[in-house]
Design a protein that fits this description.
By secondary structure, the chain is an all-beta fold. The protein is 0% helix and 50% strand. It contains no helices and 10 strands. Strands 2, 4, 5, 8, 9 and 10 form a 6-stranded mixed beta sheet that branches.
Length: 115
């Protein structure tokens, strides 16, 4: 059973930074499209960053220039660096690995941006 374990969430002030990490119990993350999503109550889960296998990262306009996704294939980790955080970034953030029929999700980590 593949497990994704997110960490790094917490409370941060507006304008601050936070780094989320996702540790994957897979042989390698290299063959997967890796992504981070976020969700707030009563809304659909929203993509915030994605790196296709062998591709380049892409971001929605809402986070472009502030968030940066990276993968470490050797450590089987996916990281989301978040800068210039806004109150509206408050959400539960989820790590996702996807390849063909395989689609894995973490349990989520809460990020709260508040003064």
């Amino acid at each position: 059973q593949v497990q994704l374990v997110e960490s790094g969430g917490g409370l941060v002030q507006p304008g601050g930074s936070l780094t989320l990490s996702c540790a994957a119990s897979v042989s390698t993350v290299a063959k997967y499209t890796v992504a981070w999503y976020r969700q707030v109550p009563d809304k659909q889960r929203e993509l915030v960053a994605r790196i296709p296998s062998g591709g380049t990262a892409n971001y929605p306009d809402s986070v472009k220039g502030r968030f940066r996704i990276s993968r470490d294939n050797a450590k089987k980790m996916v990281t989301l660096q978040m800068n210039s955080l806004k109150v509206e970034d408050t959400a539960v953030f989820y790590c996702n690995l996807q390849s063909g029929q395989y689609d894995y999700w973490g349990q989520g980590t809460l990020v709260t941006v508040s003064s």
